[in-house]
C-alpha cells in the first residue's frame, strides 16, 4: 500500500517538474517567437493601391496601367524620431507644417501622398527616416486610347463606371494591392520594435480583359481624328471575322478627370460610334443590293434633270443647280450618288423589299456587341405595315425619313460587301486572360451567315470602286496603297444652326481593293458633305494603316 502511495507521489512530482520546465521553456526560450506570432495577428494597415486587371489589345498591349505614379509614404512613428524630419518633409512635399503634423498625429498608420517625379527623386535623395517612395500603376490618363470603349473608374480606382471597366467589373476587380502597415499592441498603440512594413500582393489573382482592338490602329485613328474631326466617330472592322479593330469618338475626354466634362454641351462622354444617326446616301448600298437581288438589271437607266416631282413635292438631287446628271445606269447613279436615279430605282424595288434587305445587312438590329455586355442601339427601320406613299418610298431609297443607324452598323454593312456577301457577328471582347497570357475564358463567339449572293456583292464592289475612282468619293482614294472603295453620304438632320441646314457627313468603305481586309465607317457630325468632310479622313487613316504594314 505504502509503495503505491510513494509511486503516486513520485509521479506527481515528475509531472510538476515537467510542467515547470515547460513553462520556463515557453517564457525563456520561445517567448519572443510566440510574442511575435501574436503580434502578427495585430497588423494595422492601409491600402495604398488597389490592383485592377488590365484591359489589353488583341496582341496583349496594355490600354490601362501604362504609367506609374510616385507616392510619398509617411510612417508617422519613424518620422517623429527625426527632430528635423517633419520640417524637411514639409519642404519636400510642399505641405504646410501644421497640415503635415496633423497627418502624423492622426494615428500611427502609414499615409500616402501623390508626388511628382521630381519630388520623388528629392525625397529618395534626402534619406529622411519615416518618409519613403512607392511606385504604383496609374489606371488611366489623358493619354489613354479608346477611352469611350475602355471607360473609366471611380476616384479610388476600384469600381468601373462606364465602358468595359463597368461591364466587366466583377472580373477586373479580382486583384491584389499594395499595403503599408504597422503592428499594434492590445491598446492599439504602434509597436515600434517591429517597424513598418510594405507588402505587395499584386499579380497573384489578377484577371485581364483581352479585346479585339489593335493598339496601333487605334492610335492612328485617334491621331487622325484629333487633326481632322471635331465631332464624330470612326470604326474599323476586320471583314473576315467581325472583330472591331478600332473604335473612336470625338470629342474625347480624360478618364482620370471625368468631372470636368460632366456638363459639357459637346457631350464628350457620349460614344458617337454607338449613336444613332440618319444614314443619308450610304443607304443607297441597301437600295442597290435590294434591286440586284430582286433581279433588276444594273443596266437600267433613269434620267436626272436635277429633281424628281412626287406630287407637289420637289425632291432635289445635289446636282440640281447644274441641271442634273442626265441619263444614268445603276453604277453611274451610285458613283455620283444621284438622288433622282435612286428615287426611281426605289419605286421599282418597293418599300418592303428595301427594308427586308436592310435587315439582312444587319440594320435595325444589334451587331453582336450586346452579347458581350456592350449597350448598343438597334437603330431604326420604317414600319412595313400600312400604306406608304411614293414620297415615303422615295425618302427611304435615298436614306432619309424613319432611318437610324450607328457607325458600328455602318462599318459592318460595308464589310458584307467587301466579304463577298457574308455578314459577321461583331466583337470587341476576345477573352479573359491571366498575367501569363493564358486564356481563362473565351468571350468572343463568332457567327456568320450569307446574306447576299456573291455576284451581287461583286457588282456592288465595282460600284464602290467607281465611286472612289470617278465619283463623289474621290478624296477617299489611296491608289498608291492598294486602292479603296466606298460610298459617300450627306444626311439631312432637320436641324438649323446659324441659319443653315445641319448635315451629317458619312463615308463607308473598305481597303485594299485587292483581297480586302478592313471595312471602315467615318461619321462627321455637322459636316459639309460625305465627299468633302468624311472621305479625306478615311483616306488618311487607311493609308497610314497600310503604311504600317497591316
Compact description:
This protein has helices at residues 2-29, 31-40, 76-79, 85-93, 97-106, 117-126, 147-150, 163-167, 169-172, 215-228, 284-293, 330-335, 339-349, 351-360, 390-397, 407-418, 454-470, 530-547, and strands spanning 43-50, 55-56, 67-74, 111-115, 131-138, 177-183, 196-200, 208-211, 232-238, 244-250, 302-304, 307-310, 313-316, 326-328, 422-424, 429-433, 439-442, 448-450, 485-497, 500-511, 518-527.
What report would you give on this structure?
By secondary structure, the chain is of the alpha+beta class. The protein has 2 domains: 65-138 and 178-206, Penicillin-binding protein 2a (Domain 2); 215-254 and 268-547, Beta-lactamase (3-Layer(aba) Sandwich), CATH 3.40.710.10. The chain is 35% helix and 23% strand. The chain has 18 helices and 21 strands. The chain has a 5-stranded antiparallel beta sheet, with helices on both faces. Strands 2-8-16-17 form a 4-stranded mixed beta sheet, with no helix packed on it. Strand 9 (232-238) and strand 10 (244-250) form a beta hairpin. Helix 11 (284-293) packs across helix 13 (339-349) and helix 11 (284-293) crosses helix 14. It is elongated.
